[in-house]
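Input/output pair, single chain:
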Amino acid sequence: MNQQKIEQAVTLICDQGCVRIRVLIRLLETGVTIQETTELDETERQAVLLELKSIMAIYNLRK
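Output:
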């Protein structure tokens, strides 16, 4: 698993804003490969999904 690729994908996604992140989380949950994760394998895509969920959980607590 390439942690640098995972971090890059998470950064690209987070730069798109919270509304878009929520959409992409739903897509990743259904197994859709989004543009930001095309170069990742399934394990890395799941790591991105978990990271995004963690980030949004923290964000939601701050609201």
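The chain is about 70% helix and 0% strand. The mean pLDDT is 91.
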